[in-house]
Task: inverse folding
């Protein structure tokens, strides 16, 4: 079980415990002839717990059957190499995530057009590391195209800047 | 209305200028999506779901979505053959012999036979859909809550076990989907579940937000982390129409691929990916020259490409007749129907014959459009790969954001979208199939509702699921399926782990 899988497994089991407890305690299970609001979530919580534990046992059995396998060692070495080579893409991913989060934060606050301009410019400059001029051109073209498509062609209600409206 | 009258009325609907335009748009977008790696049909349909709010009638909306789905199967073969890069999962197997053919200067016949095979299989499969769907829908009319519960659960579990490598992880994702479906006010007791004091959560998560988050945003985040860029092809395509010798070798492979694809496509979870793998394995097994497979055998392209197209059309059967979506892309079309106020299932043919027959007839038209779009314009499609990912990725994110926001005009959905995007990224990273998540989310309320109704009918006894003949048959089928899976797993474990490709 890799580190990521280990965390995912623990989250699954913890989520199962929380859901089952919350469903039993707060939502109530009801009676079989008339199940309450917590009945289905309780079943889901129990299923998550059981499956999470089963996943862990499966991984443990697989590991013990493979512990002397040289193929496994090769995979570990390969994994290490991938991590060190993947440093730059990870920074790119983090920047993309922050830019998207900022877009969600600004969307209603400064309106669609302005937030889209900020997002596209941020993406081109931070994530893609493009030059100023190229970034500005791409940003302007994309924002204009998106605005025309959604505002005028598809007639989607989009938030406008509170200062201008 | 009998089948003949139905399909004639369907053609009258599908051939109106507006619907032709939407079928064309679907075929066009589908081919583009199939060509572009990293953006599958499920993600694209999810991205375009909010647009369906702007389309006044359900018929053109579903016609377009269906076009995207089966169009992607055509487009997927192009990059597999020319670049050894599958545009979408169902074309992975086409890389093996298709790319070898291209290396030997036979890219044209490979692309040609893929498109022709797809056309034949797609059309034959739609004929099957036309003939089989009405009687199945009529039979399903007699289903009560216990049958609906058993069927939905069987469909879901089959989709889980067939779609991914790990059944345990697939089941966890399925349960997670069911759990997301319970968020919000319980329709029976009126109690709010898992809202944690957030008002926006009382109406539950929206399907579009979940789907575009997991499949659209998650895919973008995942691809950003991947190194390497796509090389532009320099392979000469040449004559795309196959020669008589190629045709003679391929015709039976196309026929077998069509049949395999059709029957696997009907099974929930079967779909295009499995059918293409099965078809390749069958072709290799029965070939007199199995050593040619992997070296550029045209049957290795014709069979799987026919199978994936047949399967994509056949997977509409459980959706249109039973209301059970068999895979993620079909779940998106299910959502599209719900958005337009149409409930998929046995009553569809009676209550909305225009949708039922219009969509089926549009598939015949769409297949003709696709062969025209794909054969002469193959060079144009390859140029699509020149679009830099640095522009494509933020534009897709803008689509997902605007799409999610436009449903309820609330910024909360944007945060939910990002959360689902992170979930989608984590699933991709852990190599866990995300397909069961939207399926379970969309079927969850139906499963819960029919389970509670069944228990009420039986006075609280679970025996109701095995005391009615149809429900018992479904449960028995499920038991057989589980036993079969168990036997298969034990046999595989005894044979030891296999290292290397499965085909």
Result:
């Amino acid at each position: 079980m890799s580190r990521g899988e280990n965390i995912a497994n623990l989250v699954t089991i913890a989520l199962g415990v929380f859901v089952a407890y919350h469903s039993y305690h707060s939502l109530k299970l009801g009676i079989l002839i008339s199940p309450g609001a917590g009945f289905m979530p309780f079943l889901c919580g129990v299923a998550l717990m059981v499956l999470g534990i089963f996943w862990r046992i499966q991984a443990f059995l697989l590991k013990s059957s493979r512990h002397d396998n040289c193929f496994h060692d090769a995979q570990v070495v390969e994994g290490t190499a991938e991590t060190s080579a993947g440093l730059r893409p990870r920074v790119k991913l983090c920047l993309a995530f922050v830019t998207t989060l900022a877009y969600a934060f600004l969307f209603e606050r400064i309106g669609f057009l302005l937030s889209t301009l900020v997002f596209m410019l941020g993406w081109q400059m931070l994530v893609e590391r493009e030059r100023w001029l190229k970034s500005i051109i791409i940003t302007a073209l994309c924002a204009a195209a998106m605005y025309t498509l959604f505002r005028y062609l598809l007639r989607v209600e989009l938030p406008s800047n509170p200062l201008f409206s | 209305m009998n089948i003949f009258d139905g399909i004639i009325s369907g053609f009258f609907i599908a051939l109106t200028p507006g619907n032709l335009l939407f079928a064309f748009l679907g075929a066009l977008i589908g081919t583009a999506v199939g060509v572009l790696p990293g953006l599958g049909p499920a993600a694209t349909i999810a991205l375009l779901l909010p647009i369906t709010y702007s389309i006044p009638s359900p018929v053109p909306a579903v016609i377009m979505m269906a076009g995207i789905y089966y169009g992607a199967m055509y487009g997927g073969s192009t990059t597999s053959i020319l670049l050894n890069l599958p545009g979408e999962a169902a074309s992975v197997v086409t890389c093996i012999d298709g790319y070898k053919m291209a290396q030997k200067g036979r890219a044209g016949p490979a692309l040609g036979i893929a498109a022709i095979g797809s056309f034949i299989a797609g059309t034959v499969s739609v004929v099957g859909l036309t003939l089989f769907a009405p009687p199945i829908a009529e039979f399903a009319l007699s289903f009560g809550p216990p049958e609906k519960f058993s069927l939905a659960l069987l469909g879901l579990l089959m989709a889980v076990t067939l779609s991914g490598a790990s059944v345990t992880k697939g089941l966890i994702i399925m349960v997670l989907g069911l759990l997301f479906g319970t968020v919000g006010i319980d329709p029976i007791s009126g109690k709010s579940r898992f809202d944690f004091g957030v008002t926006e959560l009382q109406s539950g998560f929206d399907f579009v937000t979940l789907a575009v988050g997991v499949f659209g945003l998650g895919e973008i985040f995942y691809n950003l982390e991947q190194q390497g860029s796509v090389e532009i092809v320099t392979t000469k395509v040449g004559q795309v129409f196959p020669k008589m010798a190629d045709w003679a070798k391929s015709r039976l492979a196309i026929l077998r691929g069509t049949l395999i694809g059709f029957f696997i496509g009907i099974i929930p979870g079967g779909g295009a990916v499995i059918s293409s793998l099965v078809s390749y394995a069958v072709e290799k097994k029965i070939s007199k020259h199995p050593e040619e497979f992997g070296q550029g055998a045209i049957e290795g392209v014709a069979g799987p490409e026919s199978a994936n197209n047949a399967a994509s059309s056949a997977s509409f059967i459980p959706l249109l007749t039973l209301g059970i979506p068999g895979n993620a892309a079909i779940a998106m079309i299910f959502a599209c129907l719900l958005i337009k106020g149409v409930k998929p299932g046995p009553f569809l043919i009676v209550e909305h014959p225009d949708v039922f027959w219009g969509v089926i007839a549009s598939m015949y038209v769409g297949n003709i459009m696709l062969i025209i779009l794909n054969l002469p314009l193959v060079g144009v499609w390859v140029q699509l790969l020149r679009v830099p990912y640095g522009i494509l990725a933020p534009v897709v994110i803008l689509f997902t954001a605007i799409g999610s926001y436009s449903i309820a005009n609330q910024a909360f959905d944007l945060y939910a979208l990002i959360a689902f995007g992170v979930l989608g990224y984590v699933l991709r990273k852990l190599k866990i199939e995300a397909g069961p998540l939207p399926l379970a989310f969309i079927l969850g309320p139906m499963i819960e509702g029919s389970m509670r109704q069944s228990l009420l009918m039986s006075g609280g006894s679970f025996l109701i699921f095995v005391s009615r003949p149809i429900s018992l048959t479904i449960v028995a089928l499920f038991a057989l399926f589980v036993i079969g899976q168990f036997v298969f797993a034990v046999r595989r474990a005894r044979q030891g782990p296999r290292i290397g490709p499965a085909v």
